[in-house]
Amino acid sequence: xxxxxxxxxxxxxxxxxxxxxxxxxxxxxxxxxxxxxxxxxxxxxxxxxxxxxxxxxxxxxxxxxxxxxxxxxxxxxxxxxx
Length: 82
Description:
Elements: H1 7-52, H2 58-81
């Protein structure tokens, strides 16, 4: 039979875990925000490729995606540093 832990000890453990989460929450938020940007960019690439429909070869698909990413990067750098 396991020894019984007093209720106060459990409460202290819960508080410690909660505070640990709050301390590290900032790093988690950065990952979530970054992930959302990547997902949004991925959706935009899919949207652009659906407009074209069928690509004659993989190189044409790569050119379209590359041009979109270059445009996105340029827009991002202009808005970020101005």
